[in-house]
Amino acid sequence: MTKQYFASDFISDYLSKNKFISLDSTKAFEDKTFQELGLDEFDLVDLVMEVEEAFEIMIEEELFSVDSKVSELTKFAEEKSLGRA
Questions:
Q1: Distance (Å, rounded) from C-alpha 27 to C-alpha 8?
Q2: Which of 57, 61, 63, 70 is least surrounded by Cβ atoms within 10 Å, i.e. has the fewest?
Q3: What is the DSSP string of 40-72?
């Protein structure tokens, strides 16, 4: 399993736990923006902090906004955790 798989699962679990997506959703949510899923600025800050803690990385707050796609955060978390970002 790759780190991207884990980043995707982590973010999916967060979104599901906080009722932004349903448990039976497929990966279709990854091409949606955070705003399309119902996250506001505060929700996104919380998610980014959770990702930082889980993957032991730092994410500059200006990198992501509610207009960013879920897949962009997933890819960034993978690359940063592997030392490529």
A1: 9
A2: 61
A3: -HHHHHHHHHHHHHHHT----GGG--TTSBHHH
Token reading at 66: 């509610």
pLDDT given at position 63: 95
Task: Spell out the domains of the chain, with CATH numbers in brackets.
Answer: 3-81 (1.10.1200.10)
The confidence score (pLDDT) of residue 82 equals 85
45/56 Cα distance (integer angstroms): 16
Can you tell me the distance from the alpha carbon of 85 to that of 82, in angstroms, rounded to the nearest whole number? 8
Q: pTM, whole model, 2 decimals?
A: 0.85
pLDDT for the residue numbered 2: 46
Higher pLDDT pick, 70 / 25: 70
